[in-house]
Amino acid sequence: MKKNNFGLIILIAVLCLLALGNIHIITGSNLVFPKIAMRQSFGFSETFINVDKITGMPWISAVSRYPLGVKVLQREGIIESEEERENRIKKKFDEEWDEIIKDTQKKIEESTGNYY
Q: Is the pTM of this model over 0.70?
């Protein structure tokens, strides 16, 4: 009887390791329950991903320290994708640039006395 229990325990342990090697467990303050995401390939690197830890550091640090975690969070729609991030930055830059041009034109008009 004890031999069967030992075999069952080994089988359960192996199944748990196989399961953990195929998933990411995502946690964070904005998630009520941990979220499970499938891995792209088997492994144990970055099995547990904390959204708050990744989003609480500079972007370049997060990408270099947690590359799998960032990709999983982007794939799951929890954080913005690279394309969304680039579009947001470009839009912000364009808005700021337009404001600089308007301010510069206004100062030129005020200094020359030319008002359109």
A: yes
